[in-house]
Amino acid sequence: MKKSPYEGKTHFGWEEWLFRDLLDPSQQHNGYCYGFIQAFHGKNKDKTIIENLYLYSKECIGTNSKTFLIGMISNVEIVKKTSLTKDEKHKIEQFIEQVKCDLNHPDFIDYSSDFRQMCEANSLYNVRFKPENVQLIKTDLSTREIRLPHGWYRFNLYDLNKKPKLHSQLNQLLK
Question: Please, which residues have CB within 8 angstroms of residue 173's CB and are 6 or more apart in sequence?
């Protein structure tokens, strides 16, 4: 039996709130948007800045899937728990309360232990970026299908310099 991904069990992924601050500038803190990216939750702790972080999503239908480019964020800073200011900690507390309200829906299930662990670890925010560094695709995503190299999986960082054709394709799709 194939194990369902987290999103399949809970009906959401923690990245759902990545653009909350971007969509609501009143939520930004000192000109930054804060969010969560799984690739920095428990791994890649040695990173401080990611020059270009390409974002994609998968559409899974049965055992088949398609991958679509969503956009890119430049100069993504990895937030270190030890470097959070008092204001940033307050922002996290407010965010946690909002997430609790958002998740108060019968369709969302089986997430509470993850939520508690992430709140305690202050990892619901693990990245920050400037709004002007976000480039999202605003047209039909079905025209932005990509093929990831064999062995490349979700939630990992990959060096696109080792795959120049894919790197070129991604940049072309962002135009």
Answer: 69, 137, 144, 146
Burial 9-38 (b: 16+ CB within 10 A, else e): ebebbbbebbbbbbeeeeebeeebbbbbbe
pLDDT in tens, 99-115: 777 777 777 667 777 77
Q: Read off the amino acid at residue 33.
A: C
Torsion region of 71: left, alpha or beta (phi above 0 gives left; psi -120 to 50 gives alpha):
left
Q: What are the start-end ranges of the H helices in 32-133?
A: 86-102, 112-120
Contacts 24+ apart (CB under 8 A), 139-144: 141/57, 141/68, 141/69, 141/70, 142/68, 144/68, 144/69, 144/70, 144/173
pTM above 0.90, yes or no: no
pLDDT tens digit string along 18-69? 888 898 899 898 999 998 888 888 788 789 999 999 998 888 777 788 888 9
Closest CA to 98 of 119, 76, 67: 119
Dist. CA 113–CA 116, nearest whole Å: 5
